[in-house]
Predict the 3D structure of the following.
Amino acid sequence: MRRLEHRPLGMTGLKVSALGLGAGPLGSAELDDRAVESLLLGALGAGVNLIDTAPSYGASAERIGRCLGARRGDFV
């Protein structure tokens, strides 16, 4: 499997994947934590390290943090 290209994020010194994961749906009650964790780890396996989240996405940020646990440092 070919991994995604990673690019510099401005002058921060961070490198982020050319594609990011939009986290809006991850706060949905229709998804359980196992499904969210599987999605996040699958994205990471494909080379995605950029997650887009915002306060307007509801509980998605809290759920992402809970599901990533020790893997949090693998994402931007």
